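ok so for the tutorial part 2 we go from a plain amino acid sequence to predicted structure tokens. step 1 is just haveing the sequence, like this:
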Amino acid sequence: MAKRQEPIRKSVKDTLEDLLAGHREAAFSGPESALKYLRRTLEGQASLPNAVKAMAYDLSAEAQAQSGNWEACTESVNLAINYLPDLEAAFPHEYRRMLEGLTCFERGIQAYSELGAFHRALDLCERAIALDLGPHYVAKHGSLAWAH
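step 2 — the prediction. this is what the tokens look like for a chain of 148 residues:
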């Protein structure tokens, strides 16, 4: 009897690199193509690491914002943010750089503002400030402070 081959298991880093490469290629055709790629990846890979899901949902939020799909954008933003602890656990040395490269806070603030949910936009500003993501979030917070 032949010995059964074990499936090849990729590292979280390799899986993330594959996701980013596939997204880059799909995004050349526009945000709808990028979303289609990300949706297929998220639905088709049941064992996708949560850290990779954080990046996939962040990329989804960006594409949804480009398309003006604000409700879907807020869902993707919330999912991306929920997976941030997994991203930090998987990439402890690169987490800060990765966090600063995410667009989910910016897109979430934009989406909630477009939807008139200014208190939710303000909450995202406060989270971004707590994570020390830059002075522009302090400025955004100041412009939304009336929503409290």
